[in-house]
Amino acid sequence: MTVQLDEAATLRQAMVAALRKEGLITSERVAAAMNAVPRHAFAPDEPLEKVYRTDTTLVPKLDADGRQTSVVSASHIQAAELEQAGVWPGMSVLEIGSGGYNAALIAEVVGESGSVTTVDIDPDIVERARTGLARAGYGQVNVVLADAEHGVPENAPYDRIIVTVGAWDIPPAWLDQLTPGGRIVVPLRFSAVTRMIAFDRYVDVPELRASSYRLGSFVPMQGDGAAHESLIAITPDVGLRVDQNSALIFDVSALRKALNASPVESWSGTPFDMPDELELFLLTSGAELPMLHASHEAVDQEVVNRTVRNGTPALVRGGTIAYRIKRENPETESGYETGVVAHGPEAEQVGSELLAMIRTWAGSYYRRNAATITYHPGTADPASPAGWHTTKRHGVLAVAWS
Ligand SMILES: C[S@@+](CC[C@H](N)C(=O)[O-])C[C@H]1O[C@@H](n2cnc3c(N)ncnc32)[C@H](O)[C@@H]1O
């Protein structure tokens, strides 16, 4: 047992060092918490090496269709969200979506003068989180069984709300239970992509303003806040994913034909770098774009380019589809160059249109956190935010580029 404990401590230090190196841990508070909490106490049946990797989720729970409904998140996600949240000793924090480990990390940071509430909709997860927290010595964390759509009013208000499940919107209860001047970090899904966004609430300012955002992958919200996206199949292996509030309609048979036509490639001369930032720009700077997804088989058989593997925004005009690709180019800053591939009768024009958008991003917004993201609670005047915006159930999300 002693040997195993020593091994766990060594692996934990290595995990923290790796997260620091990747720039995901940036504060001593988060580093100390991640060095202190025994992650293996929350996944006792998983191999230690796996538990302390930075990129692995643990103890997945699957639904009847084999889809994940719960995991202990990968430590790189937990570190990033904790840093985004800016948790300090003495704070009161609500974690939405439980597992135990992340709540223990928050408890380490807030210390004895703070408090942590974690809520999950699944009784099995609540039970497991309670057991893990007791085993690891964090019995002071309040573990609540409820649909978090309604928050946890009995322990409110919270200085920080950290959502650890993919949300489509920010329900009113979360803001009602957040202190003025508080911060909510939420993996918010829009345009069929999830981004972890840290929103700050200011006294006397109606909208929430993002202080940071980054890509992140989460299991979807269940219960009253669940979202219902569509995946429109072009072939059995290639599809277009659109937001649940999308009005896009596609000529599927023309697009199927287009994928069989010879592709037209064009190159931008700009570096391929920070694809997540470029992707956000493409999705929020003009007309709505769907996300192109493909199976591994379709990528391996080169039906679509390999850059589609994790999904990419596509510009679709009638029976023509264009999306960004990359190639090695030692003359660019990143060693790679961004280009466009287009399929279909108007491949030249649609490809040029997308290329122009890529050049605009590279010329004006080629940096991290270039977008200004705001969330406007209430739906009374959805036209008010300037620039790109999307209307959710309880408010309007806006993304501006300036
Ligand atoms: C990624 S897991 C949470 C991981 C956990 N925070 C950790 O770090 O170990 C997401 C959790 O959200 C829960 N969940 C989904 N919808 C929910 C809802 N409406 N209310 C509360 N919990 C929900 C799931 O049951 C799942 O356990």
From TrEMBL:
Q: What is its main location?
A: cytoplasm
- Which CDD domains is this protein grouped with? AdoMet_MTases
Q: Mind telling me which Pfam families this protein's record contains?
A: PCMT
Cytoplasm among keywords: yes
Query: Which of the seven top EC classes does this enzyme belong to?
Result: transferase
Q: Which InterPro entries match?
A: Methyltran_FxLD, PCMT, SAM-dependent_MTases_sf
- E.C. number(s) listed in UniProt: 2.1.1.77
Q: Which keywords has UniProt assigned to this entry?
A: Cytoplasm, Methyltransferase, S-adenosyl-L-methionine, Transferase
Q: Where in the cell is it found?
A: Cytoplasm
Instruction: Name the family.
Output: Belongs to the methyltransferase superfamily. L-isoaspartyl/D-aspartyl protein methyltransferase family.
Tell me what this protein is called.
Protein-L-isoaspartate O-methyltransferase
Q: Which organism is it from?
A: Actinoplanes couchii
